[in-house]
């Protein structure tokens, strides 16, 4: 134990966030204390909860009720129908969670899914998503998205852009920063002393010697050679179609992919419900379930809390690893 609970921001209250938070508490209880930042009116009816005034109280409350750091919202939550009036509250819940972690009052931040359009409509939210907002709050220029599950950790170098834009966006600077941030995080937050990184090529068969594309020869290969000369343990550029079978995965700690689907298809195939979104490069630990608001099933009781539970468990593991490294 780190002695500190995990902060969980409420996310979009009209989505499945409140109900999976309640179900995660039912599963974890005192075994993994966390507190929920939001309006208790938005929790499923009958959820045992206790309002706390300071995060430390969650360590004692979690055994019998979901600890709630109350943040009043203007409007009630109607499942499946986001209300722009609540947008500012969603944003404030995230900002408050970040502040508490930075002040040393929580060990990590876990974030429930948001709905970007509702935030834009209701509060003029200027950021593309959660990750960029967190980087802004932390004053960090470059962060990296990792998807993590027991069977695989994977990092996409380019993320939410059209496939046609990937070759232009994939620069040596972006790739180098992504690799360095990833290596540092594996050492500091995952306790891997000498991480092994497997880097995919951009093109089929990693370009096949230039026959199927030249980025591997012109950009990816020379950069990896330079980083290997510095002592980084990097394999690649590799053909992505042979990187994700069990034997290949045993040879590395993280796979670094060049674009979104190259990274997310294998991890979602291996562990659709248990994947966790991790933001690397922040001065604090942030995890999130790897799914959206699921408006279509919000309020039905059918939402699966597995990814949120995995995100909370991974946040604790990372906090313990980071604390051990400071000793």
Explain what this protein looks like in three dimensions.
By secondary structure, the protein is an alpha/beta fold. It folds into two domains: 1-142 and 282-327, Isopropylmalate Dehydrogenase; 151-270, Isopropylmalate Dehydrogenase. Helices cover 38% and strands 17% of the residues. The chain contains eleven helices and twelve strands. It has helices at residues 17-28, 58-61, 87-102, 116-123, 130-138, 166-169, 172-190, 215-230, 246-249, 260-270, 306-326; strands at 6-9, 34-38, 49-52, 66-70, 108-111, 144-149, 152-156, 196-200, 233-238, 254-257, 276-280, 286-289. A twelve-stranded mixed β-sheet has the order 3-4-2-1-5-12-11-6-7-10-8-9, with helices on both faces. The two termini are 14 Å apart. The mean pLDDT is 96. Pfam families: PdxA (PF04166). Belongs to the PdxA family. Keywords: Cobalt, Cytoplasm, Magnesium, Metal-binding, NAD, NADP, Oxidoreductase, Pyridoxine biosynthesis, Zinc. Homodimer.
Q: H/E series, N to C? A: EHEEHEHEHHEEHHEHEHEHEEH
- Main sheet: strands, sense, barrel: 12 strands, mixed
Task: Name the structural class.
Answer: alpha/beta
Using the coordinates above, name the CATH class of the largest domain.
Alpha Beta
Q: What's the name of the CATH homologous superfamily of the largest domain?
A: Isopropylmalate Dehydrogenase
Rg result:
20 Å
Outline, from the CA principal axes?
globular
Helix content: 25-40%
Oligomeric state of shown chains: single chain
**Named CATH architecture of the largest domain:** 3-Layer(aba) Sandwich
- Strand line-up of the largest beta sheet: 3-4-2-1-5-12-11-6-7-10-8-9
CATH fold field value of the largest domain: Isopropylmalate Dehydrogenase
Low-confidence stretches: none
Q: What is the average per-residue confidence, as pLDDT, rounded to a whole number?
A: 96
Total count of strands: 12
Strand residues, percent:
15-25%
Please give the count of helices: 11
Organism: Rhodovulum kholense
Pfam families: PdxA
Catalytic activity: 4-(phosphooxy)-L-threonine + NAD(+) = 3-amino-2-oxopropyl phosphate + CO2 + NADH
Binding site for substrate: 130-131, 268, 277, 286
């Amino acid at each position: 134990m780190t002695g500190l609970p995990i902060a969980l921001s409420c996310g979009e209250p009209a989505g499945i966030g409140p109900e999976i938070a309640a179900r995660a508490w039912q599963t974890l209880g005192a075994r993994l204390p966390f507190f929920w930042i939001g309006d208790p009116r938005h929790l499923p009816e009958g959820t045992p909860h206790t309002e706390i005034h300071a995060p430390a109280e969650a360590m004692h409350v979690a055994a019998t009720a979901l600890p709630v750091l109350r943040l009043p919202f203007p409007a009630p939550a109607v499942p499946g129908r986001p209300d722009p009036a609540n947008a500012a509250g969603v944003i404030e819940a995230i900002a408050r969670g970040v502040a508490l972690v930075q002040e040393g009052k929580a060990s990590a931040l876990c974030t429930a899914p948001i709905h970007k359009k509702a935030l834009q409509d209701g509060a003029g939210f200027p950021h593309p998503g959660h990750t960029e907002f967190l980087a802004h709050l932390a004053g960090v220029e470059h962060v990296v998205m990792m998807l993590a599950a027991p069977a695989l950790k994977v990092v996409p170098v380019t993320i939410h852009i059209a496939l046609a834009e990937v070759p232009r966006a994939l620069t040596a600077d972006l790739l180098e920063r992504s690799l360095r941030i990833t290596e540092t995080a594996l050492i500091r937050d995952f306790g891997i002393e000498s991480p092994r990184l497997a880097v995919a090529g951009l093109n089929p068969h990693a370009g096949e010697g230039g026959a199927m594309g030249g980025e591997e020869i012109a950009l990816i290969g020379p950069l990896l050679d330079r980083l290997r000369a510095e002592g980084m343990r990097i394999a690649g550029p590799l053909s992505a179609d042979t990187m994700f079978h069990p034997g290949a995965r045993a040879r590395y700690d993280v796979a670094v992919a060049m674009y979104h689907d190259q990274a997310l298809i294998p991890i979602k195939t291996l562990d659709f419900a248990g994947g966790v979104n991790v933001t690397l490069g922040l001065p604090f630990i942030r995890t999130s379930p790897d799914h959206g608001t699921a408006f279509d099933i919000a309020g039905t009781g059918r939402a699966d809390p597995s990814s949120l539970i995995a995100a909370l468990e991974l946040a604790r593991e990372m906090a313990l690893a980071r604390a051990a490294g400071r000793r």
